[in-house]
Write a structure and sequence with these properties.
50 residues; elongated; mainly alpha
Length: 50
């Protein structure tokens, strides 16, 4: 449960970093969608294990 929470936090940080890069004009939307997808999966796993 703690691992899931930690990786969710890490994914959120990566998501914010990717979003910042996108705002800076870099084409990282594909990565952004991938990270948000991973983040959703992790969150679902976290809720399921609770």
């Amino acid at each position: 449960m703690i691992i899931a929470l930690a990786s969710t936090k890490m994914n959120l940080m990566t998501l914010l970093w990717g979003w910042k890069k996108t705002l800076q004009g870099e084409k990282s939307k594909k990565m952004l969608f991938f990270v948000s997808f991973l983040n959703t999966q992790t969150l679902c796993l976290f809720l399921a294990s609770d």
